[in-house]
Write a structure and sequence with these properties.
- The chain is α+β, with helices and mostly antiparallel strands and about 100 residues long.
- It has one domain: Nucleic acid-binding proteins (OB fold (Dihydrolipoamide Acetyltransferase, E2P)), CATH 2.40.50.140.
- The chain contains three helices and five strands, in the order H-H-H-E-E-E-E-E.
- It has a five-stranded mixed beta barrel.
- A hairpin with a 2-residue loop joins strand 1 (about 40-55) and strand 2.
- The protein starts with a helix and ends with a strand.
Length: about 100
């Protein structure tokens, strides 16, 4: 009986942790649909890392959510492609790159 309760507790905690991923984040669709509303503000987003790039001092990646919406992220550290992450950074606009999230180093 004790083993069953322990197994249930482990499964319950795992489900809760997985279910919390992305809670309290700004949907990427909202950033893409209304970028001026978020410009200059700190945002927290959740998604899967794709398209990592590092060219000299310029480095970053694209973050894609479950619905296929994406946003560019500028960051000195590059997480592994395919990794699901939550990040917080400043949503900024640049004349060359458009809107993106600048993650502090």
């Amino acid at each position: 009986m004790f083993k069953l309760k322990k197994l249930f507790a482990i499964v319950l905690v795992s489900v809760l942790l997985l279910g919390c991923a992305g809670i309290g984040t700004t949907p990427l669709k909202d950033l893409n649909d209304n970028p001026k509303e978020f410009a200059g503000k700190e945002v927290t987003v959740h998604g899967t890392v794709t398209n990592t790039i590092k060219i000299g001092q310029l480095s970053g990646y694209t973050l894609i959510d479950e619905e296929g919406h994406g946003i560019r992220v500028s960051s000195a550290s590059l997480p592994a492609e395919g990794k699901e992450i939550t990040i917080t950074g400043m949503f900024v606009q640049d004349s060359l790159f458009g809107y993106y999230i600048q993650v502090p180093d």
